[in-house]
Amino acid sequence: MRLLISLFLLFQTVFADEIVKPHRKFQTSGIVLDFRFFKNKIYAGTDAGTVDVFDLKTGKMEKQIKMKPLPDFYSGTIPAKVYSVSLFQDLMLILSEAKYGGRELSLYQNGKLKHILTTRSPIKKVKLINDVICIYATLGNELVLYDLYNNREIYHVQINSSTFSDFAIQGDLIAMASESGEISLRNFWTGEEVQVLKGENLDNVYKVDFKNHIIAGSGQDRRLSIYNLKNNSHFHVLTDFLIYSVGLSPDGTLALFPYKQNNDMKLISTKDGSTLKIFTDLTATLNRIIFLNNHTVLTSSDENQIVEWIF
Question: Which of 46, 148, 50, 138 is nearest to 101 (CA)?
């Protein structure tokens, strides 16, 4: 009997070590549509027309950038949703909603918001490359390298006929994910295709991450794909539910993604797909996962908060 009790307690202890629960929550002014971590601060774009800026150390909101409201059909106004944010040094590039379903690009610096571009093109994601150049992708899977100060396109290429989902950048390479299930690897300075990664996802790849020569794709087909560009190996992990998001650790050795309908997340090794930990107690569908290091993660879901996890 004592042996059985000892074994039971040992099992409980080991199992508890594998479960990770939220460490801290940052309450935002609206549903988080995108967020970034930069110089110990969290920048959250929301559907309330704001970018909420939090200090990671104190957990407090220290600044709120408000976009100009849009006119509605009843002589009132509605918030201009913030779809994407990107940072470089003291610059922030903000992609927000414009009139009649359009998109607006703005630069924020030294407390001032400067209008860059308004377009009917359905831009979905932006990324600052430096203080002059940005890259953005449209829903129609067009990739554009843009000169912010001369207001001109450097190139404009069509990736394929599939709907764009997400992109991630490492070095001079950009990994483009779409509903085709393929990931197009390109040189972002030229737009030229370097390689097409395929075979692991058979349907829409919702999100993609790219760290230290490892690319991960989260699929509508319930597959989490892993591509290793160093040794040209690849595999996938099959789950019980749609995988809406994925994040890689800075060194590319870990991947975190939702794997069940209740939004639980699984931490795996990108070397062999083995499960390392389970993250629980989320209440909404995940939309972004960002590793700060190999032991700290930030996540956002379709709700008014960002969650910090420490493991």
Answer: 138
